[in-house]
Design goal:
mainly alpha
């Protein structure tokens, strides 16, 4: 069976936290580097997963 992508799986934690302003700017920078006008789910998840 093919593994589901992370946006197709259920959230195991059920509680989410907002991105900090620094994380938001990092997500915007990732999106800009990839040629997108604003961050998508993958950008936000990658920034949120990074160690602080």
């Amino acid at each position: 069976m093919k593994k589901k992508t992370f946006w197709d799986t259920k959230n195991p934690k059920k509680k989410s936290t907002k991105l900090t302003p620094a994380q938001k700017s990092a997500a915007k920078a990732r999106a800009k580097a990839a040629g997108r006008p604003y961050p998508n789910l993958v950008d936000n998840a990658a920034v949120a997963k990074k160690k602080k």
